[in-house]
Specification:
The protein is of the alpha+beta class. It has a four-stranded antiparallel sheet with strand order 2-3-1-4. Strand 2 and strand 3 form a beta hairpin. 13% of the residues are buried.
């Protein structure tokens, strides 16, 4: 949906606050931005219509659910025209939580969550390496997530 709505500093302040805590009531956001709660509500609806705000997400600590391994993987494809087919197959692997088309030596870069190293090996052998066009992969295990934050829009 096209709209002529312009983004201003109030919108950016609202986005900054809610990107840190999406559950914060609009009345609290309004107090911090010095506008009414109704203004925050209207601004958020406009930002959604513009496609800037795509929804809200839960920030889940998957390690507390047993997924103790976070792995990043560079994927080499046999031919670049197999990209869409490979992505479609990767989307069907529940443990794959991010898929990126990138520049550089890999064609695709993904993030995987696993319960342990045997689970990781199972995903690699029985799922990822069976995707048509994937010739090889390179894995990077994350040993600690130090920062997970959004861009400051000030």
């Amino acid at each position: 949906m096209k709209t002529n709505y312009q983004i201003d500093n109030v919108d950016l302040k609202i986005l900054n606050i809610l990107s840190k805590n999406a559950k914060m009531p609009y009345t609290e956001v309004a107090k911090k931005v010095y506008v009414s709660g109704g203004t925050v509500h209207v601004r958020m609806r406009k930002l959604e219509k513009m496609g800037i705000v795509r929804g809200t997400m839960l920030d889940i600590d998957f390690s507390k659910l047993g997924y103790t391994i976070s792995c990043f993987m560079g994927i080499y494809l046999e031919k670049s025209f197999l990209y869409k087919e490979a992505v479609k197959a990767l989307k069907n692997i529940p443990e794959v939580v991010e898929i990126h088309a990138i520049t550089g030596q890999y064609t695709i870069f993904i993030k995987i969550l696993c319960k342990d190293t045997p689970h990781f090996r199972e995903i690699l052998d029985s799922k990822i390496h069976k995707v048509k066009g994937i010739t090889r992969t390179e894995s990077f295990l994350s040993i600690e997530e130090t920062l997970k934050d959004g861009l400051s829009l000030n």
